[in-house]
Amino acid sequence: MKKQKIAEILLFILIFLAILSIILQKEIKDLDEIWNYTFAKNISEGIIPYKDFNMLQMPLLPLINGLILKLTFNELVVMRVLAALLCTSILYMAYKIFNVLGIKKEISLICTFILGYLLKDYYCIDYNYATLLVTLIILYNEIIKYKRTNELIKCDLRQDILLGILAGITFTLKQTSGIFIIIVCLGNKLLFVRKKEEFKTYIKSFLYRMIGIIIPITIMLIYIIINGAFSEFISYTFMGTKEFSNYVSYKNLMA
Q1: N- to C-terminal Cα distance for the chain?
Q2: Which of 43, 44, 58, 173 is the most buried (most CB within 10 A)?
């Protein structure tokens, strides 16, 4: 187990260095990268999202990035290091899922590096990637739980609340994706219910997960309300998504 842990740490470091070397060489021309840095920079300087500047997505990732910028250096290079950590974590979780599914380590490594190569032009720090990472963690925990118990319909207070918290976090990263992840997290077991007792167990699991989901969403709403940005938050994150398009012509930017 000790050798395995060391091997996995070395794998994580290797993937991180490879991705970081790719990201650091990129030209500064990706609009999403600039926007994400600007959001984080604003927050690090005490500017309130929604109230003082426009933002359509939920604020968790900019809040995390802004805090890190405040504690380190307010430079784009910090965001690129964070991007490398995020993308490395995604590939590492994919590798872990391959392993827990019983795929040989050699094949898991090959698949992980192929996936990493296919994504090489898209490495960045982004709420979609952050949502993907949390979703992979949920999936990994669901698979591990089934492997240990060999039961699909099972209620586990600690595990269900944890999975609920993770699902709630996806909502605080990106509301449109998060709502679907929450629905799947709450309803996936229902597909396998066949007996009355199983349904009772499912309901208990559902309630525990719902409690977990409510926790991060409530904390985020409290932050928004305390900062007096609730009405603007609703306007941008829910009403504004209907009209949003992230395409801006470079020609128009130069005009």
Answers
A1: 59
A2: 173
Using DSSP, state whether 49 is helix, strand or coil: strand
When the pLDDT of each residue in the chain is averaged and rounded to a whole number, the result is: 90
pLDDT digits (tens, 9 = 90+) for 125-173: 999 999 999 999 999 999 998 888 888 888 899 999 999 999 999 999 9
Q: Determine contact, residues 205/24, Cβ cutoff 8 Å.
A: no
Given a cut of 50, whether residue 40 has pLDDT beyond it is: yes
The closest of 137, 94, 101, 133 to 116, measured between CA atoms, is: 94
pLDDT tens string 97-128 = 999 999 999 999 999 999 999 999 899 999 99
- Rounded (10°) angle between helices 127-149 and 76-100: 20
From residue 184, alpha-carbon distances to 20, 92, 163, 254 in Å are 33, 23, 11, 44
Q: What angle do CA 216, 220, 224 make, to 5 degrees?
A: 170
This prediction has a pTM of 0.89
CB 166 within 8 A of CB 137: yes
Q: Which residue has the tokens 């949390």?
A: 134
CB 86 within 8 A of CB 130: yes
d(CA 165, CA 201): 19
C-alpha 63: how far from chain center: 13
Contact (CB, 8 A) for 82 and 127: no
Query: Between helices 157-173 and 60-71, what is the axis angle to 10°?
Result: 80
